[in-house]
Amino acid sequence: MWKILLLLLIVVPALEIVVLVLSGNTIGIIPTILLIIATGILGAALAKREGLNAIRTAQMQTAQGQVPGGVLLDGICILIGGVVLLTPGFITDVFGFFLLIPQTRASFKAFLQRVFERSVRSGNVVFYRGGRRY
């Protein structure tokens, strides 16, 4: 897992640089910079809207006595998507918008659900409540 993360931290910025240079050569430096700023602003607004929707839904589910598990995964996806959108680059922007749009976020949510379930079953994640281990 850590090796994959390290690889992503090296490969993704290198690819972003390549795409930014190609974009600057194709459409110009100023339009490239403006496009980066625009995606950051649009992403921040979308992250705020989706985050507030997730909070409202979690509050309603909690008030009805339900555990807001799916909404928490939405919140994780929205947080990651918002942070990724604030980093300059087009590759990360695509991934960020993927996580912020509810229809596309569902597939990543399903992936996170499987990862969490596998971690709990393998014993890598342990829950404590009231001093008892679950």
From TrEMBL:
Q: Give the InterPro entries listed for this entry.
A: FxsA
Instruction: Output the Gene Ontology cellular-component terms.
Output: membrane
Question: Which residue ranges does UniProt annotate as crossing the membrane?
Answer: 26-47, 67-88
Keyword annotations for this protein, in alphabetical order, are: Membrane, Transmembrane, Transmembrane helix
Residues forming coiled coils: none
**Would you tell me the protein name for this molecule?**
Membrane protein FxsA
Taxonomic path:
Bacteria, Bacillati, Bacillota, Bacilli, Bacillales
